[in-house]
Amino acid sequence: MGRQSLRWGILLLVALVSLKGEELPSCEDARKVFQLLQIGPAKGLPETPRAGADLQICTSKNLTCCTKKMEERYQLAVKQDIQQVLQTSSSTLKFLISHNAAAFQETFEMLIRQAENYTSTLFCNTYRNMAVEAAAAIQEFFTDVGLFVFGIDISTEELVNRFFDTLFPLVYNHLINPGLTDISLEYSECIRMSRRDISPFGNVPKIVIGQMGRSLLSSRTFLQALNLGIEVINTTDHLQFSKDCSRALLRMQYCPHCQGMTLSKPCMGYCLNVIRGCLANMAEIDLHWRRYIQSLEELSSAMHGTYDIEHVLLNFHSLVNDALTQASINGPKVTEQVNKICGHPVRKLTLSPGYSDQNKDNQGMKMSARDTEETLANRRKEFMNSLRLYKTFYGGLADQLCINELAAADGLTCWNGEDVVKSYTHRVVGNGIKAQSANPEVKVKGTDPVINQIIDKLKHIIQ
User: In sequence order, which residues have a C-beta less than 8 Å from that of residue 365 and are 6 or more positions away?
Assistant: First the structure.
C-alpha cells in the first residue's frame, strides 16, 4: 500500500537482521531504514549517536542519530507519506464515483442516439414523404438535448418548441395538404411562426416540455453532482498541510528513528490528536458530504416513471407520432387558421421528395424490450447502495487512518512524541476545527479557503 506498508516491512526486516545481541550504541538501524526507504543519500549519515543541537523538530536530551539534513529529508518524506495514505484511503470511493460518472454519461449518450434513431425511423417508415426534410430538425433537436444534459445552458422549453415549430410547415405541406408543395420560403416561415398560436399538435408539445424539462434537468444535475464528488476527493487528496501540521507529522512518524527506535509506532491517542489536527479542515466537509449523498439519493429516487430520462427519450418518437396524428385529424381546422394568418399560398402540384428505399432496411425500428437488469434505474440504485456506505467518509477519516495504518494497537508500548511509553496521557480532542483549540500536538489556524470553496460547491449542488 505504498510507502507506509513498505516502511513497516523494511523496519521488520531491519529488526530481524539486527538481532545480534549488540548493545553498543549505534545508528546502524536508522541508517539502513533511511537508505532502504530512499529518503535521501547515504553520504553524511552518522554511524554513532551524536549531539543534536542543530535539530529543530526531532530534539532530544539524549544523543541522536539524525542530522539537520536528515530532518529536512524526513520532512519531505512524511508529506509524501500522508498524501499517499490519503489517496489510498479514498481510492475505492474515487473509483466508484468516477467509474459510474463515465458509465452514466456513456448511457445518456447512447440513449440520445437511440432516441434520435427511433424518431428518424418513425419518419422513414410512417411519414416517408417528409423524412428527408425532417432529418435536420431531428438532428438539431437531439444535439441540443445532448448539449443540455452535458452542461450547456439551453432552455429545454425553447428547444422543444423550436422542434415543433420547424416540423409544422413540413406537416402542413405533406400531411395536412399532401402533394401541394413548392411554397415560398416566406409563406413557410409564416406557418412556422404561427404554430404556437394555432396549436396543430394539440397538447403534445406541452407534455414533451414537461417530461423533457424535468428528466433532462435531473440527469444533468446528477452528472454534475458526480463530477463534483470527484472534484472534492481530488482536492482533499492533494490538500496542502500547514507548517505546524508537517512538523507534528514528522515528530510522530520519523523522530523516533533518531533515537534508534525504528520499530515504534505512535500511540493511538497521540496519532488521533496529530491526524485530527492535520485533517481538521477536511472534517468540516463531513456534514455537507452527508447532505450531498442524501441529495443524490433523493434525486435518484425522483428520476423514475414518466420522468426517467430513459423512458422520456425512448418514448419521444411515440409522442411525435401522436402530435402528427392530431395535426392530421385537425387538418381542415388547421388549414383554415393558417389561411387566416398567412393567406392562401400560390402553389403548383409537384411530387413530394420521398425517402430513399435503399436505406429502409437499415433504418428498421428496433423496439425490442430492454433487459430490466440493464435499465438506467437499476444502475442508479446499485450505485447509490454502494455510495451510501461512504456517507461518513470525511467524518471518520482521521480515525480510520490511525486505526488501519498509523498507530500502535492498544496494549503495546508506543511513541508519544518524546519517548516510548505504555500509554498516551494527554487529552484526545475531537474532529473538526472547533475541537482543535485544546489539541496539545497541532495548532490549527482557521478554515482553509480551498476547503471553503469545496463546501460552497457542495451547498450549491445540494440546493
Answer: 118, 121, 122, 125
